[in-house]
Amino acid sequence: MDTFDIIVIGGGSAGSAAAGRLAEDMTRSVCLLEAGGHNRSILVTTPGFMPFLRQGSNYRYETVPQKGLNGRRGYQPRGRGLGGSSAINAMIYIRGHRWDYDNWAAMGCTGWAYDDVLPVFKRAEHNVRGADAFHGASGPLWVSDQLWPNPASIAFVEAAASLQLGRNTDFNGERQEGFGLYQVTQRDGERWSAARAYLDPLRRQRNLDVRIGVCVQRILFEEGRAVGVIYAVAGKERTVRARGGVVLSGGAFNSPQLLMLSGIGPAAHLQEHGIAVLADRAAVGENLQDHIDYVSSWESRSDVPIGDSRAGTLRMARAIWEHRRKRTGIMTTPYAESGGFARVMPGVPAPDVQWHFVPAMLEDHGRTKVKGHGVSLHACVLRPESRGTVRLQSKRAEDGPLIDPNFLDDERDMATLRAGVRLSHRIAASPPLSHLGLTDRYPVDLADDDALDSLIRSRADTVYHPVGTCRMGGDADAVVDPKLRVRGVERLWVADASIMPRLVSGNTNAPSIMIGERCADFVREALGA
């Protein structure tokens, strides 16, 4: 049986950061276990190939039927392979609002206020604009301005400005509100995943053992202490031991699943599946939160947006050739090129809706191809009140969990989304965006609440930001404490978005990487280094 100082389960955004930081100390041995592959193909590294990624890089989960979405099953893509979702996402670099982290601290997460986490964000970041009070320029995670934003994306920003919604050139700076182009996790025109940032520089170090293509079955405990992991590869079970402990970084769906498979979770639910209870933790798998999102879509008379046409196909063929030679041009697109933040409801402490503008027509998460040219505008509820769950489907890790986000269960979420969709249409009707000659693909009477609600329930879904299922807190019911240690056992940490007590006001990749960085700090502290 292999033995290491630390085992990290999951090579996603947070897991890559945690494993990479821990392995920087050559005196410490680290084993990283990942179900997927290396994710080094050009389909991953070329941003514009995102819609054509191989199935093996995505778990392609689905939810249970959602009563708030007319009984539909939602789609839940999750990154599979080194880099996790940072290898398949839109690369948008957003940290969230200052209020989010100050609220975490107020909820009992001591040491997680904005002033506590800002230095960690800066330490991780290599921003091409340089260092300042809000940004770092020497970290492993490259953050870049877009090399070739589509003219339609620029028109969207100008249209928002025409409505006096304000401009913002840095959503991670002094203020979040306003509209502009997003910065992206790219380096020289290529996707810069967490694996490229944290693991690739250590590829030749003998103290970091990265094992891909494995399926973790459960965590091993002796006298209440995490001492190893059982995983399957090629149909055979193997055991790897940990002298110092285990870091679980499976994400908001797989971390609670693995805790429950290991005997940590709601006792009655574990017993239903014949799993011996090690620690009765009712909050494991609870508190699931996700950004419910509605995508408005318009056809355009102009062929300026990306589209499926003869002209569009020829343009993309030339762009692929340009990117292979120069790493410039259209194929550097993150697709969600511009967007913004605004307050649409009274009395909120921070922006409550985020927009992602895509200079192309999206249907069913991009899985259904649409002919012609057009644009899409996402509006998502930043701090939803609805809460869902993650539960076991079976005691087999390969079966995946049962995911129930419980979307739009709380009427406040619908009210916020309704207001956000209305503002989407106001922006689309404003020049210069309206000069593209837009025709609404899903026309509705925007003044009719019932009609708009019906349309939203028929088409809304996730914008890919599930969190909260291994909630952090200072209270005894929280799954992990503010140093990310799992309560009820020893030497087991969780490092991923599942520890968030409340969903941040923005995209979750950068915060997940920050959590991985912090977990490495906590593990080093626990090991006396």
Structural account:
This protein is of the alpha/beta class and 529 residues long. It has two domains: 1-89 and 183-289 and 389-402 and 465-529, FAD/NAD(P)-binding domain (3-Layer(bba) Sandwich), CATH 3.50.50; 147-181 and 292-381 and 409-459, Cholesterol Oxidase, domain 2. It has helices at residues 13-23, 42-45, 98-106, 114-124, 151-162, 194-198, 251-261, 267-272, 310-326, 411-428, 449-459, 509-526; strands at 2-9, 30-33, 61-66, 72-76, 125-127, 141-143, 178-181, 186-187, 190-191, 208-211, 215-222, 225-233, 236-248, 264-265, 279-280, 292-300, 307-308, 338-342, 353-358, 372-381, 389-392, 401-404, 438-440, 461-462, 492-494. A hairpin with a 2-residue loop joins strand 8 (186-187) and strand 9. Helix 4 crosses helix 12 (509-526).
Summarize the structure.
This protein is an alpha/beta fold. The protein has 12 helices and 25 strands.
